[in-house]
Amino acid sequence: MGHLTIVALIAVLFTLFVEIEANPFAYNYQRLRIGGLVCASLLFVGGLMVVLYTRCTGKNKKVEDDNSEI
After folding, report:
1. Residues whose CB falls within 8 Å of the CB of residue 21, separated by 6 or more in sequence, listed in order
2. For each successive 10 residues of the chain (70 residues), what is the average pLDDT?
3. Which GO terms describe its cellular component (predicted)?
4. CB-hemisphere CA count at 13 Å for 57?
5. I need a labelling partner for 67 at 20 to 30 A (CA). Which of 17, 37, 45, 50 fits?
């Protein structure tokens, strides 16, 4: 829950500092590209965290199962 709060806070701060353009259909492609790269990198890191978390918890469960059989 703490991570979600941090992400929401960053999103609010980001919207405060974004410039409002007169024409909403005139895109700044540099900003769009950077935003896409940031989004892709966050998704990539999140995926790695999920994979590593499941891998780490899988090792602990095997150790506990081996100890319970003895």
Report:
1. 28
2. 76 72 73 88 90 73 55
3. membrane
4. 5
5. 50
Give the H/E segment covering residue 11: helix 2-17
Please give the structure tokens belonging to residue 18. 């974004």
- In this structure, which amino acid lies at residue 31? R
Nearest-5° Cα angle at 22, 21 to 24: 70
Tell me the Ramachandran region of residue 26: left when phi exceeds 0, alpha when psi lies from -120 to 50, beta otherwise: beta
Among all chains, which residue has been given the structure tokens 């995926």? 47
Q: What global pTM score does this model have?
A: 0.47
